[in-house]
Design goal:
By secondary structure, the chain is an alpha+beta fold. It contains 5 helices and 10 strands; from the N terminus they run αβαββαββαβββββα. It has a domain of 152 residues: 3-Layer(aba) Sandwich (Protein Transport Mog1p, Chain A), CATH 3.40.1000. The protein has a 9-stranded antiparallel β-sheet with strand order 2-4-5-10-9-8-7-6-3, with helices on both faces.
Length: 240
Amino acid sequence: MTRFVALAAVLTLSLAACGGADDKPAAGPPATTPTATPTPSATESTPAAPVTRTTTELTKALLELADLPTGFAEDKDEADEDAKPFSSSSSRCKSLVKYLNATKAPGSKASVARTFTGGQEGPYIDYGLDSMGTADEVADLRDAYAEAVDSCTKVALKTDGAGSTSMKVEKITAPQYGSKPFAFRLTGTSGPKRGLEYAAVVTGVDDVILSVGVLAGQGTELDPATEAAVTKARHVLKPA
């Protein structure tokens, strides 16, 4: 899940996110018979059993420093799970604020993440994997997150020692990797962090939500970062 809280810790701020999806199982073909007697209606195929992923398995599927271009370093700071940097006075933003303040995907069975920095000026890139059990769970969370973004136009980001920044919320074109990718951007429009941008994508790799977040980037990092993350996750996380 996207973790603005983790990236924000690197910038003395805070952040978070979720999911993608695969197609649901199709119904089985109708039974056929030459006899005139009525045949029973076709039964739907049984949904796939939930997949159990361990944190060790997910960690192996995460990008590591060796996978990134030169000039990056891994940030070892842990995200503050009690931090709640985002808020809004609008009831329409309640769900989005909840997702942004999360450090892992709601309903996640196992969650891992790594954050990398390209220097004091950025970019800061966060990669996350959350095991949801089934592709349907991934799809449901991804859709709920997309709906939350559509419903909200701005949120407030509280920065330690510097007050609050108003952040514009908008959906953006997602990099086309993984299952049903979805992306959005937060942009500081007023306050101490005016001009700060955070872009994130959430997508599915079977029963796992993959998220990539870029803070203080140049606008070109999200696509290649997502491609690399999805490629490695698909290679390591074999379907059950």
